[in-house]
Design a protein that fits this description.
Structural class: mainly alpha
Number of strands: 0
Largest sheet: none
Number of helices: 4
CATH architecture of one domain: Irregular
Order of helices and strands: HHHH
Radius of gyration: 29 Å
Shape: rod-shaped
Distance between the termini: 64 Å
Amino acid sequence: MAYSCFSAQSRQWLAFLDESLLEELTKPQPILVLSSEQQEQVQLQHGSCFRPRDDATSSKAVREKMRRDKLNDKFLELSGALEPGRPLKSDKSAILIEAACVLLQLRQEAQQLKESNDKLREAQSKAKQLLSLASAD
């Protein structure tokens, strides 16, 4: 993956994130599901601190899934906005890296346009001064 819009140090950091940290973060985490017999054993061993799964916990899981689905939809929307007409990317790290790159390019372009605008305003001001001097003569 190319990171041409970033400094060499940033590219090294992003490559590290791509290769190791992001892989670790995106690994599915195992979910521990205990049978009622196992739950009783845990309660006996550790006291009453164990809380069995109830409706509140399952509704929390449903809310979390809805949140993840909404977040995934936003990633796809961002991917589509970054490269209209191209197939959508599903790799979240690639989408974020590309978004950061596009933002950096847009900031640089905005700075160049601002500088160009300032130069044009200065030239316009000088032209007005020359016109007023010429009309005064």
